[in-house]
Amino acid sequence: MMRLITSVLLFFAVTGCSAWHAQPDLATTTGIRLERGRPSQLLDRTGWVLGTPNKLALWDRRADNHNVSSETEIQLIEYLEENELDSVLVRVNQYDPLGEWRRLAANKQLGAGWRYTIGTLNMLKYTLLPGRLLGGDWYNPYTDTINLYSDIPAIALSEGAYAKDVREREHPGTYSAVQEVPVVGMWHETIAKRDVEEYVKSHGTQEQREETYRILYPDYGGSWGGQVASFLPYGNVFGRLAGAAVGHAANGIRSIALQKKRRSNTGASSQSEAASKTRVNKKRWRFQ
Known about the structure:
By secondary structure, this protein is α/β, with parallel strands linked by helices.
């Protein structure tokens, strides 16, 4: 059994660790490091299938598709650069346990006590349950690394927002440890989602804003469902699906309300223009 596990991990190491810097021009000018794992049809296709629950939750084929586009990379890099998060490393579909263990030791932003306890547990999870195969976008505050497997800008920005949240804390190690507790972890989820919404409002187009809402609502609802049901067998998966369904419904209600408001504003504007034309015509008639 141990030989099988060792062989599998070595396979991941060979196929997932080799990296190259995507978007070198942008990375050079911003100082943000981004590394991408070597493509592997076997791993990536298997990972795509194993990511089906997340695809269903977000109702988006790009979730855990292990094929992140340059557009998603660029949006995340620009966000990190604007918020001066140049120490963050972005790993795109990459498995590099040795590199992550080194970053754990080198990350002086968090106290050694937190890094070598909770941080070590996170690293064991990263090593034994490779996201390169199982997916699951996440930010590891103990290594200051964002791990991306989904080609969805809103998800990538959410992980960047968590990195920003941790950076702004007076006691980042304590804060990060507290976020490991089920339900309490929704603290940083709420802050990150709000930050992304505000960022896209000020930087994105109307289409990008709607896309962000379409993703963040079910993702946020799914996080609530997964954490609340995490105490039950398979509760995380089924809880996330149920919570995501509530999120989709909430976004639908928001979208309908917005459309009604726009129609109302358009109707009021048309009535105002018609009234203005009537007043002008009456004036002209009086002085004929």
